[in-house]
Write a structure and sequence with these properties.
Length: about 240
């Protein structure tokens, strides 16, 4: 008898999702809906996806309030971590140089590069400034494809769940302007991203920091997934690889 193995789609969890997941419930209707969606994704869809992170996620969520940081770290502790590679560093620079991601948001470019480099199926985020921004997603996709990578789906947790549900009726979401809306959780996330960008002036510095985190994680028994170069499209590899 043939046995069929179902491979779960991989979902890269960006720090804004983790922060909304563990934060104290809010009375703000938009923020509260994002918190419920984050919790629903985590609890109701864990058997449908393989959630993954990177050391960039760790670098962000371990900062800020110590108690909140411990909660965030505890939530992601069981997840598989994706390794970084020089190819991803080059993609980060392309994203920054092209303006697809601003230079004061280097961690966001790194999230996109790692998720894309590993060929995950989805990257989920509440970061409407730099990642799930409707005006930037196509530009990000173009830069990644020009660098020789297959584009991935970048979306919010709500969009991911609606996609999986085949557009079934879901909780009605409050209307908001993604270009201007913010909340205390997002502001803290943006502050940490800017802090990291200011601390590491070059990609080489940031990459060295991430490599140190990776080595420490491996010593502590963290499960890492190595980078597979075959995820790239050979005919579209850039001159940087020569």
């Amino acid at each position: 008898m043939l046995k069929y193995i179902t491979i779960k789609p991989r979902v890269y969890i960006e720090p804004t999702v983790v922060s909304h997941l563990v934060a104290r419930p809010s009375n703000d209707p938009i923020l509260a809906s994002w918190q419920r969606a984050s919790l629903r994704l985590w609890e109701d869809y864990a058997d449908k996806f393989e959630f993954v992170i990177s050391d960039v996620v760790i670098a962000e969520i371990q900062r800020g309030d110590p108690t909140a940081a411990q909660q965030r770290l505890a939530v992601v502790a069981p997840l598989t971590v994706l390794e970084i590679s020089p190819e991803m560093d080059m993609l980060v620079e392309k994203l920054l140089d092209s303006g697809a991601v601003p230079r004061n948001a280097r961690p966001d470019a790194q999230h996109i590069a790692i998720a894309t480099g590993h060929g995950v199926d989805y990257l989920v985020s509440w970061n409407h400034k730099h990642i799930v921004n409707e005006n930037k997603r196509e530009h990000i996709k173009q830069i990644c494809q020009e660098a020789g990578f297959q584009s991935i789906t970048i979306c919010t947790p709500i969009e991911l769940m609606e996609d999986i549900q085949m557009k079934e009726t879901s909780e009605k979401q409050p209307e908001f302007d993604p270009e201007t809306y913010t909340n205390p959780i997002l502001e803290e996330c943006y502050r940490i991203k800017a802090e990291i960008s200011a601390q590491f002036k070059t990609q080489a510095e940031f990459s060295a920091y991430l490599q140190a985190l990776q080595e420490e994680g491996k010593r502590n028994g963290v499960k890492y997934v190595p980078y597979d170069p075959s995820k790239r499209t050979p005919s579209e590899k850039s001159d940087d690889d020569d």
